[in-house]
Structure formats: structure tokens, C-alpha cells
Amino acid sequence: LEEIPPRPVQDMGNILKQGYLEKRSREHSFFGSEWQKRWCVLNRRTFYYYASEKSKQPKGNFSIENYSARLAFHLRKDSRKKCCFELTCPGKRTYEFTAPSPAEAEDWVDQIQFLLKDLRSLTIPFDEEDEEELYNDVDSSDSVNTTSHNTTLNQDEPNVEMEEDDIYEVLPGKQPKPE
User: Where is this chain compositionally biased, Acidic residues type (predicted)?
Assistant: First the structure.
């Protein structure tokens, strides 16, 4: 088992979502409550749960890698059943939670699924280089006809050859400034 170093809530960086959830305890105690209120924190790879938001040591934590998250209305029979979700992973413990509202449960599931997709692809969701490539891909289909396009635009003037890197379009009646 990979050991994740415990960290106080205050020392956490990259917190994607945090808040109080009710977590179902693993041991169903005869005396204790089956659902315990926990301050839960999700960062880029790990789900931590604390006794409260002021706690220095987590009650527990686990790497969310290879887990899946989904709404789980079957976990409760009371009015809060639509607030439930679970994190499952084959061969590992299933974690069951109740959020304060159905919308909050959906948000936790969405955040975890987004993060899991990100972990599987091993890329940062918003990468400027990817965005540039996207634009280049869009432009590449148009750039095949650049020369003929410029010729039709500049019928009255001699055709001005544009450099590969030039991002400015030659408009009728205007000459590009020499560099």
C-alpha cells in the first residue's frame, strides 16, 4: 500500500473541493453513528477526511487514482438518499458519503470524475500549448489556399508573397510594411 503523508488542512495546496460530508464508517458500531460528519478535502491526487476543518491530522486519506465516483441513492432510505455518492475501486475499499444537498453530491462526483479523467490522460486540463495547436489545426485547412486567396483579394495590385510566420492578412489598398 502506498503511504500518503498526512497533512493538516491548512498546509494543503491545490485544493479542488472541500466541505463537510457525512462518511459511512467501516465498522457499523452498535453504539456509534453509522454516518459521521467529516471535513473532506480533495486535492489533485488524494481524498483526505478530517474530524473537522480545524484538525491537524486527517482521520484518513486515499489516492483517488483508479477509483470511480457516482451518485448512489441506494445508500440511504431517508430523505437524504439523493445526496449520496460513492467512490469505488476494484479490490479496494468503497467509500460512501452523504453531501448536504443533491446538487452538492453531484458537484463532488463531477469534480472527482474530472480529476480522474485528468489523471488518466496525464495532462493539465488547460494547457496553452494545446490551445495553440488547436488553432493551428483549424488554420491548417485554410492555409493551403492562402496564395490564391491573396491573389483574388489583390486583383489590382501585384501578388505579395507572405512569409510562413506572417499572421497578418494583406488587405486591398494596403501594402505590408517592410521589416
Answer: 131-140, 158-168
Q: At what angle do helices 128-143 and 146-153 cross, to 10 degrees?
A: 60
pLDDT tens-digit readout, 100-156: 999 999 999 999 999 999 888 865 555 444 444 444 444 444 444 444 444 444 445
d(CA 49, CA 21): 9
Residue 132 parent element (H or E): helix 128-143
Is the distance from CB of 35 to CB of 98 less than 8 angstroms?
A: yes
Question: What's the Rg (C-alpha) of the chain?
Answer: 27
User: Which domains are delineated in the chain?
Assistant: 15-122 (2.30.29.30)
Global pTM? 0.61
Over residues 65-111, the pLDDT tens digits come to 999 999 999 999 999 999 999 999 999 999 999 999 999 999 999 99
